[in-house]
Amino acid sequence: MLTKAFIPYKGYYSTPFARWQGIMANENAIVLGANTSKRWFAEKNWDPKMFDYHFLGLTIHQHRMFYGSTWSAAMIGATGIPGVTLMQACSTSTTCVYQASLGVENDYYQNAYCLMVDRCSNGPHTIWPNPMGPGGEVESENWLMDNFNKDPWAGNAMIQTAENVSKEAGVTREQCDDVALRRYEQYLDALADDRAFQKRYMFAPEVKVSKKKTVLVEADEGVTPTTKEGLAKLRPVLPDGVHTFGAQTHPADGNVGITVTTREKAKELSADPAIEIQVISYGYARAKKGFMAAAVVPAVRMALEKANLDIHDTKVIKTHNPFAANDLYMAQQMNIDVNSFNNYGSSMIFGHPQGPTAGRCMIEGIEEAVMLGGGYMLFGGCAAGDTAAAIILKVG
């Protein structure tokens, strides 16, 4: 259990997420994330030189990624600090915040900035020389599609892991469609009153659309309207499967920034010093081979155990749910109502830029907890390689 790490209220932002090959498709995600953070700091009248360590989280290679953490630190204006580039698939944001919290907890630094970025659009294609191949033919990898389609250890595609869990847990097509519709309806709540909920935390990136023109991206791009009738017409992606394209997420682009600091500094930076956000605990797990969606449950249980809490002690629960089976399995195993969590949005609906996804979910969870008068916020999400991570924050 952690005791010293805090997140200032409003000491975070998420950009809108844009469906891949959309408006952010041609931006270097590191540059866009750093430029967005710098504009956000300026709006808050924050001096980025106050930070003493930097975490850059991303999962898809971008130009100059070798220098990622120090380059992005310099671009945001924190020119004198070191940092680290962290990659843990869909658990990247969760682990960045946890690692930042550990540093604060152990007095290695006082004020850390976590910037999580990714661009699924126009993913890089890597080639390696293969002198032993026929005619010296190169080996190649598509960073996005090849890894969606095959885990080199489990030997199957991401969606197959969800189908494996569904079959073992007795998840049905009808349940998946029902959850997908519920998650879309929850997302619509975030759009009510001219997007009042999203405007509590969302910050518009400035995106180049030509050499001379930039635009501010104010809202999510590419969310698919969902209806019960529309879901029923879709075919399963895999033969005899329970997931259609309507019951899973889509690749996206975006970035998220989260500040992790001491209690005293958090009060100083907070938009409301009366609201404290404390990092309490972290959990991790790896499921059996080819069962990624099942890994969230043991990760959540670990985070709860470290915090000396029961899941029913939490006020807000958010998940990264690339497939409907994720939420159905967690609800089944944890004895909770699948319709009761992921209020105001989840990655199944607003998309999945990978590195920033969990960060946005955590931020939404914080804002919901504040609206409810405080309490424990639990986030849990799976990640490639049949792994998962979870984190608990205390808001009050």
TrEMBL record:
CDD domains: thiolase. Residues 14-254 form the Thiolase N-terminal domain. One of its GO terms (molecular function) is acetyl-CoA C-acyltransferase activity. Keywords: Acyltransferase, Transferase. It comes from the Bacteria. InterPro entries: Thiolase, Thiolase-like, Thiolase_C, Thiolase_N. Residues 278-394 form the Thiolase C-terminal domain. The keyword Thylakoid does not apply. The keyword Transferase applies. The active site is at residues 90, 352, 382. Coiled coil: none annotated. PANTHER family: ACETYL-COA ACETYLTRANSFERASE, CYTOSOLIC, ACETYL-COA C-ACYLTRANSFERASE. Belongs to the thiolase-like superfamily. Thiolase family. This is Acetyl-CoA acetyltransferase. It comes from Desulfonema magnum.
